[in-house]
Amino acid sequence: DTAVSQTPKYLVTQMGNDKSIKCEQNLGHDTMYWYKQDSKKFLKIMFSYNNKELIINETVPNRFSPKSPDKAHLNLHINSLELGDSAVYFCASSQGRSPLHFGNGTRLTVT
Amino acid sequence: GENVEQHPSTLSVQEGDSAVIKCTYSDSASNYFPWYKQELGKRPQLIIDIRSNVGEKKDQRIAVTLNKTAKHFSLHITETQPEDSAVYFCAASRVVGGGADGLTFGKGTHLIIQP
Asked: I need a surface site. Which of A103, B23, B49, B114 has the fewest CB within 10 A?
């Protein structure tokens, strides 16, 4: 069983489109995250979500919006996609004294 | 906020030799320092972590040292093997796992093991 699973694995779309990436964790963790890894491999947090409290990295454009239907899911919706949004997006989760655990990533390519 | 600097960006060593990657951090309140290994096309995976009440931790061929006064920590890999080739990331946070603020990562070190 994959502890943190995200879909799709690959996403190719055109500029201006709206897309979503789904994430689910079965670890029982109470905090979920979205990280972005750019072409230079730099990993940066975008959002954290804990008990309905959303913490947003101030550098993230408001075209990005996380949505959490329940504690085990944190989806990422992106409006009006731009070329610069091309990256690998990692969902992750943690709780208390447990380390951060990443999903397998979604490679987004905007053409 | 926290800022983590990591060096070198690329490190090439002969198989069997040791490799050392160094990181510095800025937030004196940071207490948790994990290291992640990312193989090509895969997710980052935790290989070792250290908390601020410990100066050194070892797990087989890998070890991490922490100097809280100087705000730096290092990853040491001994007897390197081809499967150690990957990108390694250091990170820092105030709580284990990152908490509400998440982990702040260094920019990564591409470790190349030469046969």
From this structure: B114
Q: How far apart are CA B2 and CA B4, in angstroms?
A: 7
Put simply, the answer to whether B98 touches A42 (Cβ < 8 Å) is no
Q: Return contacts of B63-70, CB within 8 angstroms, 24+ apart.
A: B64/B33, B64/B35, B66/B33, B70/B24
- Judge whether B69 is closer than 8 Å to chain A, CB to CB: no
Q: Is A34 exposed, middle or buried (0-12, 13-18, 19+ CB in 10 A)?
A: buried
pLDDT (mean) for A60-73: 92
Structure tokens, A15: 């500029």
Q: Is the pLDDT of residue A58 over 90?
A: no
Q: Do B97 and A96 touch (CB under 8 A)?
A: yes
Question: Is a pLDDT exceeding 70 seen at residue A2?
Answer: no
pLDDT in tens, B5-37: 999 999 999 999 999 999 999 999 999 999 999
CB contact under 8 A, A100 and B43: no
